[in-house]
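Explain my protein.
***
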Amino acid sequence: MKKAIVFDSSTIISLALNNLLWILQPLKEQYKGDFWITESVRKEIIDRPFTIKKYKLESIQISNEIQRGVLQVYPQDLSLETKELSNKANKVFFGKKNSLQIIDEGELSVLVLAEKINAEAVAIDERTTRLLLEAPKSLQMIFRERFNEDIKVNTNELKEFQEQVKGIQVIRSIELCIIAFEKGILNTYLQKTDLQSKKDLLDALLWSMRLKGCSISDKEMQEILNEEIKPKFIPSKR
């Protein structure tokens, strides 16, 4: 398995919108591996946003991370493999008339590259892709509620898709931020190092990521706070 993580646009955008792109460099240094993006993802996070005034600054900031070598653009063309995977993924669910087009080219190219280089993980915030990988039945129920019709599953296409992407681990921007918190990378935001200050920082981090791109539930946020913010055990003197 290659020491590498392949990033989708959704994860990078979540970090950019929260002014946290800078954590990628120290994370990469500690990880001692590669942070890859595909050409399709590069277009999604740089070329298109650069033409929109609202997102132009984020586009420039992300471009800078590529120029510095923190994010690397995979040099080979993945369009053929991506199209083949799309023919499976976008035929998994179907309604009364047509198959549902649920995953776009960028996300599919991320899965293709991860499989091609045997990466340790893919970083994806987009919920549809994560659920298709991890919990397709839950995704089916979501689509039934969303479209108010009986969405069915093409079991053959689902099986072929799962076989191709089998073993790919998915992480989100929030997991990257938690690792940065644990490694002390975010201590630059702390004026004090007491437990309450750390709890406030983590709580602020979780809420900001949730409100600006990363899907995370109240329950999960509380579990993270409980796990990460623990008083240090001090043995009693005898």
